[in-house]
Amino acid sequence: MLKAIILIGGPEKGTRFRPLSLDTPKPLFPIAGKPVIQHHIEACVRIKELKEILILGFYPASQMQQFVSNMQNLYDVNIRYLQEFTSLGTAGGMYHFRDQIRSGNPSAFFVLNGDVCADFPLQQLYDFHVSKGEKALVSIMGTEATRQQAVHYGCLVLGKDEEVTHYVEKPRTYVSTLINCGVYVCSMELFARMGNVFHSKQMDYNTLNNGNGKDLGHIQLEQEILTPLAGTGLMYALPVSNWWSQIKTAGSAIYANRHYLALYKNTHPERLANAGLKAAEDSNGSLVCNIIPDVHIHPTASVHPTATLGPNVSVGPGVVIAAGVRIRESIILENAVIKDHTLVLHSIVGRSSQIGMWARVEGTPSDPDPNKPFAKMENPPLFNNDGRLNPSITILGYSVSVPSEMVLLNSIVLPHKELSRSFKNEIIL
Ligand code: GTP
Description:
Elements lengths: L1 E8 L20 E2 L2 E2 H10 L4 E8 L3 H14 L3 E6 L5 H8 L1 H5 L5 E6 L2 E3 L3 H10 L6 E7 L2 H4 L3 E5 L5 E6 L8 E10 L2 H19 L12 H9 L5 E5 L4 E3 L3 H18 L22 E2 L3 E3 L4 E2 L4 E2 L3 E3 L4 E2 L4 E3 L1 E3 L4 E2 L4 E3 L1 E3 L4 E2 L4 E3 L31 E3 L4 E2 L4 E3 L2 E2 L9 E2 L2 E2 L1
Helix pairs in contact: 3-7
This protein binds guanosine-5'-triphosphate (GTP).
Guanosine-5'-triphosphate (GTP) binds next to strand 1, strand 4 and helix 3.
């Protein structure tokens, strides 16, 4: 029997995802029509020996309850949320809840960072872990990055038989281009390692009074467990070339949306709106708009037959899209209304936002550089060195209203704003 842990952090994390994380925890933000971590759950439930998924974080349980019960109803495995009383780091929570993870006697468990997206080759990673025999405590999914970007990740050096001989988290200088994807298979014996770190910290507390403001149970998997395991013959990495990215900034949501929609072609074709001519009839006999694949439209959304959507558009529940609207490379969240002949490009339109007629809402994509092999998203800071906003996708927070005929370019609008003019390269607070 196997289990999986999904690490989701808490409200203080995900700051670069604002303002979208102001009303929805980042792990529940819908990408390709499904909350970020539902994609993790779907990857886990494909493993037939997997019987339980534990979501670990320090969000209040009340924010996760509805999602967890929805997931429990949808999938045939046990799914629970375990709330850390404070941030315990990427391994402290697992150690704290070790009895719950061990119960039922699983032979191993997956660990998935909640802020990555991928087509998670979990079976391949598990088979790899098993092939390394009893000695393997951890197997890491690895991927290639560029030389410049690799230093922003955990860097892996491999020796014979894919053994990790060296692991440095966010090194100051170049170590290797093989990076840690935040997806692991761990053996149960790993808890003994976590225990050693935990107990040595208790000793420190008695003598040094733990000065870093973190709880004593705070353990970082990468620095405190993986780095010392490198070179001991107990840790391995499987380099894969599957699609993988982190979800840090809102711009990365548009990028992830495109890839998850593309994956639906194989995994869930029923979630994609059919490419077709204007006013073609879909299988329910209702009118569909002009679709340029890939597009996901929630069944409760209403899209006028003369609107044109795609490529890479997700439309949430209750959304209303009027005549002649054109949308591409964008996510339109629940109950938003887009009036006639408006154009939306490279943008995220927040829940219950309204855009008037003949408006233009446009952002700048922040995709990885297509000319550099293995390039990842840059995730630039909001402002450049001159204090100007870096070009980014345009984001409308919750319940924003944009009047007719306005132009909104590369701007971020905080929730509940009623705009009265056009904006370019601004944050509207
Ligand atoms: P940054 O570049 O600083 O964001 O770091 P990172 O990419 O290395 O990510 P980080 O180590 O902060 O987090 C990795 C994953 O663990 C993410 O999915 C986080 O949501 C999650 N995480 C981080 N801290 C905690 C924690 O205290 N508890 C739990 N349960 N999860 C955490």
